[in-house]
Design a protein that fits this description.
Layout lengths: L4 H33 L5 H9 L9 H28 L6 H26 L3 H21 L13 H22 L3
Helix pairs in contact: 1-2, 1-6, 3-4, 3-6, 4-5, 4-6, 5-6
């Protein structure tokens, strides 16, 4: 029996839609479980960030914990480049803080990469520790803008502040996802 063209097209669309729902279900389920287990997890952020990574479709909690760490690497690298770009534009009176942030975010990127490697090797405690270290390094960047006295204090540039928030949130997602596989 031959299928009519519009029936075949409708069937293809239905299969594609169901496939997308199934692919996203793992991210949604993992993020829901992570948020239920750890109140610090921002469910919407978790779904949005893990869901857009090419390794997410079909990944289990172990795979998604690694995706969270890799996402942290990328954002930390972007933060280091943003600090460098702001510094190249003169730094706006915060050159020392921007230079320090560049160093700290490069180190945060390596810490997230080490978190990925540890989780991949199933050394979950080390992976969670590295993710926490990466978030700590990002917080140190914010502190670099505080200065030693009020005269040296400068506001954290918004683009850098966004990276600090991202590092903290993705480290929490990485840790909470890792906790689901222990």
């Amino acid at each position: 029996m031959m299928m009519k063209p519009y029936t075949a097209a409708l069937l293809a669309v239905a299969v594609a839609v169901l496939g997308v729902v199934a692919v996203d279900a793992t991210v949604v389920t993992t993020c829901r479980a992570a948020a239920d287990a750890d109140a610090r997890v921002d469910y919407g952020f978790c779904v949005a960030e893990l869901g857009k990574h090419h390794d997410s479709p079909g990944a289990d909690a172990w795979g998604l914990a690694k995706v969270a760490a890799l996402t942290g690497v990328v954002d930390a690298d972007n933060a280091a480049y943003d600090a460098r770009d702001l510094l190249a534009k003169g730094g706006g009176g915060a050159a020392a803080a921007l230079a320090r942030c560049g160093e700290l975010y490069r180190a945060a990127g390596f810490a997230f990469a080490e978190a990925h490697d540890a989780i991949n090797a199933r050394d979950y405690a080390a992976g969670k520790g590295q993710a926490a270290d990466a978030a700590s390094l990002a917080r140190q960047c914010d502190a670099a803008f505080a200065g030693k006295d009020d005269a040296a204090a400068a506001a954290v540039p918004p683009v850098i502040a966004q990276h600090g928030s991202y590092a903290a949130r993705i480290a929490i997602v990485c840790t909470a996802s890792t906790n689901l596989i222990e």
